[in-house]
UniProtKB/TrEMBL annotation:
InterPro entries from the UniProt entry: C-di-AMP_synthase, CdaA, CdaA_N, DisA, DNA_integrity_DisA_N_sf, DNA_integrity_scan_DisA_N
Protein name: Diadenylate cyclase
Keyword ATP-binding included in the entry's annotation: yes
This protein's UniProt keywords: ATP-binding, Cell membrane, Membrane, Nucleotide-binding, Nucleotidyltransferase, Transferase, Transmembrane, Transmembrane helix
All residue ranges annotated as the DAC domain in the record: 80-250
Organism: Chitinophaga caeni
GO molecular function, a single term: ATP binding
Family the UniProt entry places it in: Belongs to the adenylate cyclase family. DacA/CdaA subfamily.
Any Pfam family the entry gives: DAC
PROSITE patterns, sorted: DAC
Lineage of producing organism: Bacteria, Pseudomonadati, Bacteroidota, Chitinophagia, Chitinophagales
Assembly with partners or alone: Probably a homodimer.
Residues passing through the membrane, by range: 6-27, 34-52, 58-79
Amino acid sequence: MDLLKLEFSWLDAIDLLIVIVLVIQLYRLLKGSLAFNIFLGLCVIYAIYFLVKALHMTILTSILQNIINVGIIAIIVIFQPEIRKFLLVLGKKTPLSKDSFFTKLFLPDKFKSYKEEEAIINEITLAATHLAQKRTGALIVIANTYRVKFDTASSINIDANISAKLIESIFSKESPLHDGGLIIVGNKMLAAKVILPVSENPNLPTRIGLRHRSAVGITEHSDNLAIIVSEERGTISVAQDGVLSMDISPEELKVKLYEVMVDGIS
Ligand SMILES: Nc1ncnc2c1ncn2[C@@H]1O[C@H](COP(=O)(O)OP(=O)(O)OP(=O)(O)O)[C@@H](O)[C@H]1O
């Protein structure tokens, strides 16, 4: 009997832990995005529903019950990109995902490739630092998958190795490729002059323009990291998960790039 009780309490603890982890993941995913406000609105509706139910207010309870029933479908439609991303994050943390501890343990040759990634990180950081010093605007997207979707109508395919000098020349004001974003996937620069989706998040600072807004936009529904060099202020910023971290140092940029390109954290 006691054993049964113990088992129950363990299960309860695990249950609670899983719920906490899921809520934290959900919070991290939605933080700073428009969906976060919708999420808060839904929490308020749920809270009111439980309150009126506890108070036995039958009419209000049945109205809210109906709203919640329809709301499940609405949630799936509204949060479709977030749900997709949430599942992606969960998949990444499984023991068989490509960046997991177990995979690295049994596939030690993954470690060998870090040298190449370190070199790439240094090149990108160097380029961003030089561009910031020269107050040359730039927008670089580090995409985590080859399936990255971007508008190809105006973009130019490059498929080149990553080098600081090439990145700097792409964004130099005389270059025909300097407008728009540069897409990097793995160890290649895939395309330049890419038009990115502009974020409609009303919580972004009003002083930022389209370069920063489109950097946020491309990270809102995908696993990308976007690096922005401000032409106006000569500073480096990054966008990730729809959140903009402004005016970071080259060292901080390096850490971000490590997280994305080596640790596979996003
Ligand atoms: N949708 C877009 N996708 C990619 N790049 C864009 C997009 N819209 C604008 N840009 C780039 O941003 C440049 C304009 O930047 P703008 O001054 O509006 O932004 P900002 O965030 O204030 O940046 P900065 O601090 O460098 O001035 C354009 O010349 C173009 O290169």
